[in-house]
Amino acid sequence: MARVADMPIFASDVARQARAGRESARMALDRLVRIELLADGARRSIGADAPDLAQARASAAVERLLEHDFEPHARPEDVPDAELRTLYDASRDSFVHSRLVQVAILSVFTGPAMKAAPRALQAERARQLKAFIDARPSRSADDFGVVRHDPAWADKDLGIAHTWHSEDKPYSREVGRAVQALRQPGDTTELVTDEMGFHIARYMAERPAEDIPFEAVREKLRAGFHGRWRANRFTQLADEMTAHHEVERHPERFAVVTPD
Asked: Measuring CA to CA, which residue among 125, 123, 118, 189 is closest to residue 152?
């Protein structure tokens, strides 16, 4: 669009200035020309070797590089479908699943390697926990948190979780089978035993089975993933530039740097 003292002004610069200043393209171009003229005058009067000027020029150069070589290729629509598909596949259980039941779960853990004697002690503790819960008047899922911090149980290292459970995830199939039998708030499983220990689950909410294809959630994934993808692209650009230079770092000198 223009060149001022060897400094180009691109159409994208004019468009951005016009949007920012809510002015016509001609007014935006005139404003940018004046800015470049003032900048050139400053360079001449201050001297090209002035540290502040050198820093400002470096910052301006970086900004222009990003505006012309990075930003046009880092838009949401530039996120490749292949990366979105990978994201979809990694979180497929969120889109394709059987009925999910949200539950609060209290657990007395053992682990598969625990020997018979200590496991028997944990089993007795779990039975006492179930009796304690059954005797309480509250049937809310929040009451599990109250139980865990009750003086009678605060030092017993109970596990607690709030999760969406399918037929076999994230706990075991034994837990999943019991959870799938719950139907309404307050419903509570019996004491469920699996190789990891003993569990009691209480219904909170549910989601019906879903089978949502990639195409139906592609744009939602794109919107959520764009910020992270853009940051990764920026890091990749910086790494590519670093590969052409030798960089020295002296972290031991940080001690002499004082904050403003």
From this structure: 125
What's the confidence (pLDDT) of residue 253? 65
* Burial tier of 6 (Cβ tally within 10 Å: 0-12, 13-18, 19+): exposed
Distances (CA, A) of 260 to 1, 34, 257: 40, 33, 9
Contact between 79 and 229 under an 8 Å Cβ cutoff? The reply is yes
Answering whether pTM is above 0.85, one says no
- Residue 194 CA to residue 202 CA, distance in Å, equals 17
Tokens at residue 73, please? 């290729």
Instruction: Locate the domains of the chain by residue range.
Output: 1-73, 75-95+215-260, 98-210
Query: Where does 47-71 have alpha helices with state H?
Result: 51-65
Dump pLDDT digits (tens) for 97-155. Answer: 999 999 999 999 999 999 999 999 999 999 999 999 999 999 999 999 999 999 999 99
The stretches of 47-172 forming alpha helices (DSSP H) are: 51-65, 81-90, 116-134, 143-148
- pLDDT over 60 (residue 48): no
Nearest CA to 201 among 161, 170, 172, 173? Answer: 161
For residue 68, name the pLDDT band (cuts at 50, 70, 90). confident
Cα→Cα distances 132→15, 75, 103, 119, 136, Å: 69, 56, 19, 20, 7
pLDDT score of 232? 92
CATH class of 98-210: alpha beta
| 3 state SS of 38 | helix
Strands 100-109 and 210-211 come out as: unpaired
